[in-house]
Amino acid sequence: MRQFRVFVRLVLVFILSIQAQTVGAEGGHILLEAITEIDADVVFMRHALAPGFGDPDNFSLTKCNTQRNLDQVGRSQAIEIGRKIKESGLSFSEVLSSEWCRCKETAQLLDIGQWETFSGLNSFFQDYADRGETLQKLNIKFSDLKTGVTFMVTHQVVIRAVTGVSVGSGELVAYNSSTELSKTFRLD
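Below the sequence we write its predicted structure tokens.
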């Protein structure tokens, strides 16, 4: 009887591992399908979950403790999304992040390649960055993208200004900077 239980457990572990691999493959498939469907050269991601609304009045770009930051759920979300991106096999030509700490932490936890900050992705929600200047920098970047797909971790207001789409935390938007077509999707 004990051997039978061990056998059943092994079978269940095997089945669950196959299902887990399938779910990961589906995440990668969703990413590649979104990019291919519109010939995207950019994938935007709104930073992972950072509870709250806006940033505190004492906000400082150089001090993370004055900003709204990722919680443990947000950190886990970023890691999971990064895992699914890596499983897709896609390598990005460039990975960029807003200078806000929640975006930088998201980029770090995604672990999808070297990343750097880019002020053209900063939030202008509470006027801590100038909307016009930010979008001008981003549009210049669009005209000078590297070959391939660029991954950009940013804020809801930036994604909405460019694509017209409102997204939740951790949501992604494939975007074609020439045709301005977009496709929204989730990997978590």
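Strands lie at 42-46, 94-97, 116-117, 150-154, 172-175, 182-185.
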